[in-house]
Amino acid sequence: MPNSPPPDDLLILLTDVARLVRTLADRRARAHGMTRAQWMILARLRRHDGLTQRELAELLEVEPITVGRLVDRLAARGMIERRADPADRRCWRLHLRPEAALALAEIDAARRAFDAAATRGLPEAQRAAAMAALLAMKTNLLAGAESDAAGAAA
Amino acid sequence: MPNSPPPDDLLILLTDVARLVRTLADRRARAHGMTRAQWMILARLRRHDGLTQRELAELLEVEPITVGRLVDRLAARGMIERRADPADRRCWRLHLRPEAALALAEIDAARRAFDAAATRGLPEAQRAAAMAALLAMKTNLLAGAESDAAGAAA
DNA sequence: GGCTGAAGATAAGCCACGTTATCATAACCG
DNA sequence: CGGTTATGATAACGTGGCTTATCTTCAGCC
């Protein structure tokens, strides 16, 4: 087994672990005939029922077109309903339907299972340190992204 | 700006930061007419010239078909050369060509820039703790993935 | 009121990634 | 030696992400 070279690089290790989580979640979702992206839609809608597609896209930090296609499939399966907005004929309002309940329960179970599996044996101090470091990195990178965008716009 | 809900969840924070890194790297690669996936191929080949596509796929932890398609494009741009293996007519041996040199330099610059940006102001102790935690999580998740696979096979 | 611009949704087209199926070739083994 | 299995590469097809363009509808403003 030609293992990865020594991951002395924090960013590489970070993206590695994240991909592992994505892959495992994908696999679990597919075992239930769904995809991770579809799970994300359902989980968000549970917290914010009645969103428009654009609002949902912003929450998920993807583009509206991506949400639109995912909603196509979920609506076809009866898990989501597109209702016309009474005040704005341009947009849909998204609502969960009872058919989504089973999937939502499975999402919760998966999240608990992954968190438990990933952090097994991890001292609380280390977990806290990791979260602090990740939070700092996120802030740094977001600041960098904005200044990049500003530079490009100028 | 409808920001994410409090990311008290380590896994969510982790995937968020990783996505941020991926997005920024993608943007930078595209600014040079390439993609992040193509960069990964070139960086690996620099360390291991002469790999087969299958070996490269294992190093990158993706499927061989994915590597094959990426190599198609890189070969079309003259950055990679597919040479027939003298002993096994089934497989190609991948070799970098001089045309890849500029891209490799840009990859190095991008990696340095991202690491510096992400960890700016991060105490060394926190960085080390984050790496230790991530490494433990990777090990845990890999073990879980294997036992899952074994269970599915049985 | 009517024009102009902004905003929500979607289409088209590209890239990346996966699963499954094929094909050619190697490798093994009776 | 010949048949079976394993392996490297690829094709076909689906999902999901992006950018750019289009269409409809809304909102503002003269």
TrEMBL record, chains A, B:
Top-level taxon: Bacteria
HTH marR-type domain sequence ranges: 7-143
Pfam families: MarR_2
Sorted UniProt keywords: DNA-binding, Transcription, Transcription regulation
Keyword Transmembrane helix recorded: no
Protein name in UniProt: MarR family transcriptional regulator
